[in-house]
Amino acid sequence: MRLVLLSHRVGRRTPLYPGTPPIQLTHYRSIERGDSSNLWVISMANHAGTHVDAPNHFYMEGRKISEYRLEELIFENVRLIDIPKEPGEEVSAEDLEPYSEIVMTSSLLLIRTGLQAYRDTDQEAYTSKGLLFSPSAAKFLKDSSPNLRALGIDAISVSTPLRRSEGRESHRILLSDNRFLIIEDMDLAGKPDAYRYVILAPLFLDEVDSAPCTVIGVTD
Questions:
Q1: Tell me, what DSSP letter sits at residue 212?
Q2: Was domain 2-10+47-219 assigned CATH 3.40.30.10?
Q3: Model pLDDT for residues 109-118, shown as the tens digit of each residue
Q4: Per-residue pLDDT averaged across 52-56, rounded?
């Protein structure tokens, strides 16, 4: 058995979707300064870094991430597919059609677009161009598989700032059945394409819609 980290570590240089408040790490107590212990104050938006969107992100009556049961955060039959894209491009239904059988049998579908290559080298392209997971692609997933409960992607969001209205529509389509989850800004570079199961471990924060998360894959 092999454990694979599918989420990014969080720090001050973590790229953020435009308009997201910056991450702040404050060394509140410090052994170096003479305190008895170290204590940090962490301030970050709940959609910063690798994070999971729950239905309440776009639906007032939708479930919040803290309302999910533990068994709903463990996914079996997880597959990763490659759909290469450049900043500002879109993933369409036509891109997904060759993978129809995989979509039908997966509980979590991971899509590696390759945009992650820009995460450290060109954060402007990664955040301000990003990519669009198109409404047609979102509808394809919803119509193709009753077993699919989540989508993960190696982009800052399924919505590009260049086409926000379409991105909002994609979110609404995917989150409409009140059980679906979207995992954004994942670390998929060089990772295996099949998993026995994947564990999604969000912060269980009361009141908020969605949360930062750690994602762990388990392979043979």
A1: E
A2: no
A3: 999 999 999 9
A4: 98
